[in-house]
Specification:
The complex is a heterodimer of chains A (278) and B (191). By secondary structure, chain A is of the alpha+beta class. Chain A has nine helices and eight strands. By secondary structure, chain B is of the alpha+beta class. Chain B has a single domain, classed as Nuclear Transport Factor 2, Chain: A. Chain B is built from four helices and seven strands, in the order H-H-H-E-E-H-E-E-E-E-E. Chain B is globular and about 55 Å long. The chains are: A alpha+beta (278), B alpha+beta (191).
Chain lengths: 278, 191
């Protein structure tokens, strides 16, 4: 994949900007910094055509606000163009949908259907390990806030799995007349901790978030730091895309679309389960 | 300068007919005035950091400037630093960060700004304050007395809290927008 569209974008947007700043003995070409999509907020603005050529915020009263012309220039440069897994066909179809002149599609910060996957580091029982948090933006009576929607932590998943109930379970059960014995056979449930989950009801689903809060409160799980993050967007009907930060040289850098898939409702649920490790 | 900005914000608040109740949106014009005040505070921060990090600055003066710097921030603001080699964030309290900088004792500290910055929208948070993030790029160059030069280019994402407050001027209650800095994330860039 070539970075050609990004360069093209820069040629269109930046002839006025091609300046080298001189700071003492230090010379620097600032066009790369201009081109970088520096915040997720800026990704929204550029995607929606809410930023002018000078990088100024546009509002509904402004002439170029959300115009097709402006968005047509920005959107091609919002894809990761280096070593990308994105296909030209997907990019074209997606762009055609969001830039449709009759019925354009915009992203909405408060529109839901997007989430953050945050890699963090915790110490669990003295051992440092990576823990993934899934965060969503929750609207409140006043304002909004990010909340933890779920977690993935390997030590939890290793110990507590969702049992595979798709197959007939003919060995791990309490027989139907156990009550007549006052459940004296209950000890069998606890003989093998590995198969404990099979004695739960059919709908049993481990709640790792509760476990997470519990272990922190018990002092066995301790927060160290954050590492990395990316975003998953399901806001555009029929599409999924992933947003990743690229800290690199060149004009195609910052927050960019790193994965793009056309998906139906069913695949959307499968993908969500996959992201959440469910 | 600071006072001038405060007056500017007060005037803009009056000019756009702000009422103290149920302020849910900030007009583009007022947003611009708030952005200017926030940028001024960020430039003050850069200026103070240069003074604190400079060996020529007497200890007592550096301590005084640290106190001035802390006035720019909300309580408990943190500096989160990551590098190209290590993406994990290391945290420093602002005071701790400034004191470390003072102890580094560079013979000369040069902080240069790029003209590029990005100022996010202001978002309302549940406590009624607005929050924004300003991204700036800075080049730091510290020269020690043996001539060794440490330099880096960093991207700094600076949290800005904006709050509507009131003050009494000649017996009249006047509303104004107060801006304080919050957590700062510092990322080393490849640029």
């Amino acid at each position: 994949m070539t970075p050609f569209p990004a360069i093209l974008l820069l040629l269109v947007l930046l002839p006025w900007y091609a300046q080298t700043q001189s700071m003492g003995e230090f010379k620097y070409d600032e066009t790369e910094l201009y081109a970088e999509t520096k915040q997720v907020n800026q990704f929204f603005r550029r995607f929606n055509g809410e930023e002018d050529k000078q990088g100024e915020r546009l509002y509904a009263k402004d002439k170029d606000f959300r115009t097709y012309k402006l968005r047509k220039k920005y959107v091609p440069g919002l894809f990761n163009l280096e070593n990308s897994i994105l296909t030209d066909a997907a990019k074209e179809n997606f762009s055609a949908l969001v830039l449709d002149k009759e019925d354009p599609t915009y992203l909405d910060f408060h529109g839901g259907a997007w989430l953050c996957e945050l890699k963090t580091v915790f110490t669990y029982q003295g051992v440092e390990d990576e823990l993934t948090m899934f965060l969503v933006l929750q609207e409140e009576e006043v304002g909004s806030k990010w909340v933890i929607d779920g977690i993935y932590f390997e030590p939890f998943n290793d110990v507590l799995k969702q049992p595979d109930n798709s197959n007939f379970n003919d060995s791990k059960f309490l027989h139907p007349l156990s009550h007549e014995l006052g459940f004296m056979n209950m000890f069998r449930v606890f003989n093998e901790s590995d198969s404990l989950e099979y004695f739960g009801n059919r709908e049993f689903k481990p709640d790792y978030l509760s476990l997470f809060f519990y272990e922190i409160k018990k002092g066995r799980l301790e927060y160290k730091t954050v590492k990395d993050l990316k975003f998953h967007f399901f806001q555009i009907d029929g599409w999924y895309f992933e947003l990743t930060y690229y800290n690199r040289d060149g004009y195609n850098s910052g927050w960019l679309i790193s994965n793009l898939l056309e998906i139906d409702e069913k695949n959307r649920d499968i993908l969500l389960n996959y992201i959440y490790h469910e | 300068m600071k006072r001038l900005s405060l007056i500017l914000i007060i005037l803009s608040g009056m000019a756009f007919g702000y009422t103290a109740q149920a302020q849910t949106d900030i007009s583009p014009e007022r947003k611009k005035a708030i952005d200017s005040l926030a940028m001024e505070k960020i430039r003050d921060l850069g200026k103070y950091i240069s003074i604190i990090g400079n060996k020529q600055t007497p200890f007592s003066e550096a301590k005084r400037v640290i106190d001035r710097t802390l006035e720019l921030f909300v309580e408990d603001a943190q500096m989160g630093v990551s590098s190209l080699a290590r993406d994990e964030v290391t945290y420093y309290g602002i005071k701790e960060y400034l004191e470390r900088l003072m102890l580094l004792n560079y013979d000369k500290v040069k902080i240069e700004w790029f003209n590029i910055q990005y100022i996010s929208d202001l978002e309302l948070q549940p406590d009624g304050r607005y929050v924004g993030v300003i991204t700036i790029f800075q080049r730091f160059e510290g020269t020690s007395d043996d001539g060794l030069v440490y330099k880096d280019v960093t991207k700094k994402d600076i949290t800005v809290y904006v709050e509507r407050k009131q003050t009494q001027i000649q017996g009249k209650l006047i509303g104004f927008w107060d801006v304080l800095l919050g957590d700062i994330r510092v990322v080393e860039t490849t640029k």
